[in-house]
Amino acid sequence: MNSVQLDPLDSPYPVPWNWIMAVLTEAKADATPRYRYYRSPSLISPDGEYAAYSRIQVELGNHYTQSRVASVLFLENLKTGDLQTITASAPFADNPFMAEAEPEEAGRIAILIPVAWSESGDRVLAREFESIFGSDIASDFAVVWHRSSNLTRTIAPTQVSYSNAVLLGWSQTNPNQILFRAGHLGDPEWSLYAVDTDGQTRQVNQDQPVVFGQTVNSIWAGPQAYRP
User: Which of the ends of the chain has fewer CB neighbours closer than 10 A, N or C?
Assistant: First the structure.
């Protein structure tokens, strides 16, 4: 497998697309087990108290367009060992890790990966990549978890026209806002937008993305053991 991570949106925080494509290419849908798992590297908070990482699941279908990809983001308190989970909640997301979850359309992709902590470590920012196999539908959402309130918000640019958005990180100008680059597929120039936690969106020109936290590769990161 190519060591350079490819990404459908050319994101600076790539999803493990090489691994997903390899799984879909090499595995047969009637094979047992039908599920493949991948764990992302851990992103440690600036104060060293929390680790954020995600577990990604591929469910093999009869054809790659019937396969599904979903994920759960874990927040681990490194002092107590307590785990909290965050699941994707954007329009195409589903949660296969909950028995009561309603079955969703085949071909859907919903991948959460940690991108950055805030400078003080009170919030974590995750990329939620949403797509559908065999289509040109693909876009990022931002997921923000607040440590003090334990609340999660899903954020994307609003009231602007675009087909695809790419999450870039926190705003350097306003650390309570999130930067996206967004535009229409095929357009040579995409615009830069700053979005607050309520979805209020404004176009910006000079802002730069910033990220905090330390990425740590552990022995658990990468493809996981197969499960039926």
Answer: C
Reported for 17-20, long-range contacts at CB under 8 A and 24+ positions apart, including other chains, are 19/223, 20/56, 20/58, 20/69
Radius of gyration from C-alpha coordinates of the chain: 17
Cβ pair 55, 6 in contact under 8 A:
no
**CA 194, CA 200: separation in Å to the nearest integer?**
8
Binning pLDDT at 50, 70 and 90, where does residue 101 land? very low
Each residue of 86-104: b (16+ CB within 10 Å) or e?
bbbbbebbbbbeeeeeeee
Amino acid letter for position 111: I
Residue 215 burial by Cβ neighbours in a 10 Å radius (0-12, 13-18, 19+) = middle
C-alpha angle with apex 159: 156 to 162, nearest 5 degrees? 70
> Is a pLDDT exceeding 50 seen at residue 87?
yes
Per DSSP, the three-state class of 99 is coil
Residue 74 tokens read as 């874990």
Tokens representing 23 are 């799984």
What pTM was estimated for this model as a whole?
0.87
Q: Are 142 and 124 in contact (CB under 8 A)?
A: no
Place of tokens 């003090």: 148
